[in-house]
Amino acid sequence: MKVLVVGSGGREHAICWKLRQSPLIKELYCAPGNPGIAEVADRVPIAADEIHKLADFASELGIDLTVVGPELPLVLGIADEFTSRGLAVFGPNKQAAELEGSKVFAKEFMRRHSIPTADFEVAHDASEARRLAKRFGFPVVLKADGLAAGKGVRVVHDEQAFEDALQAFFDERRFGAAADRLVIEACLVGEEISLMALCDGTRLLPLAAAKDYKRLLDQDDGPNTGGMGAHSPAGVLPTGVGLEIIEQVLTPTVRGLAAENRNFIGVLYAGLMLTEDGPRVLEFNVRLGDPEAQPLLMRLSDDLLPVLAQGAAGRFEVQRLNFAKNAAACVVLASRGYPEKPAKGEAITGIESAAANEDVAVFHAGTGMADDNVVATGGRVLDVCATGPNLREALRRAYSAAAEISWPSKILRRDIGRRVLNRGESGSSS
Ligand code: AMP
Ligand code: GLY
Fold first, then answer.
1. Mutational test site, ligand 1, from 151, 155, 275, 285, max ligand atoms within 8 Å of CB
2. Domains in the chain, ordered, with CATH?
3. What is residue 209's DSSP assignment?
4. Considering the entire predicted model, what is its pTM?
């Protein structure tokens, strides 16, 4: 098969890396890709949001399947464009992608379908936000309605932080039209996990659970980011709760979307808080999590390609996905200044030797080439991943490989997985 992957981050590198292993792959392209992806796929110089150009490319080359990594092209309607031209695509259409594109839509959808989530209100300006927030007290959570690359959420603990957030959202317009509306919601307490499933419109193939570390700094301090590390298994999911989430969240979501004429083909991602009262949805995404995809794809023992092709055609032919009984971990190397203003352009050393370690893969996220050197071009730069017989060993290997890579502004969290290990790796192995 000829396959096109859309995107340029660590998630897309991992998708290409996995697809390259398929005996069915004949040609693999990635638009626009990055220098790491170039080792496993042919790069195509078209940006991920240039939907028409991507469709032209897929038509011209006779691409059999397009796999969309990031949310932006999905929310812009890439799947609709491809489908209208008779091109197979694994990713939801614009209507279904609203589940991620609008938090107001997602919250109201959950309310309509009795999907467990935090209590909430919707505000259109600062004074309405002040009035509506009163009934929640502090801490309270404020979320920009639209896409904000994982950075549009503030958990505020006092009046001052609340006012600062309102200023950023409404006065400074830091998120533009994405913050025309705000979701104000009750703050939930518990462990966070990510549970995803591949969907073909009606059926679900759940992935193993993963844990993502969204805060910039150790001990879950500092601002929210796209994710600073991840591992699978999550290590914090009590036996049976995964099934509960599939039954109470993922299945009713796909059914509810279908009932509202928003047939969902693609990856449905639920970010959840495991509270004392049960799992609650924090957010939905309509694509693989980044960096969760990296460890998950390292553990997936099935060939990904036929499953995605079947999903795009609206009919899975397998009943379940199989994951190795091992563990995988990912440590994100970012550049100082991330998420606000990361340093850019510095040359990176040590990638090859780090990647040469057994059971280690180094996925590129924000890298470029300058004078034959790999340089840091993004906030999140490299994802150092490793598998191991258990989480402790996977994390040890990932950290040990991460130490071999350097550039002046390199930063990383030192505590990915630590709290889970200290709990004794309880929870199910999936
Ligand atoms: P979201 O993009 O909605 O997943 O939010 C980003 C992060 O903010 C989540 O991963 C949580 O760490 C935190 N968060 C979001 N909503 C809540 C909530 N209702 N209670 C506590 N923390 C939250
Ligand atoms: N790591 C969280 C996300 O992909 O949204």
1. 155
2. 2-93 (3.40.50.20), 125-180 (3.30.1490), 191-422 (3.30.470.20)
3. P
4. 0.96
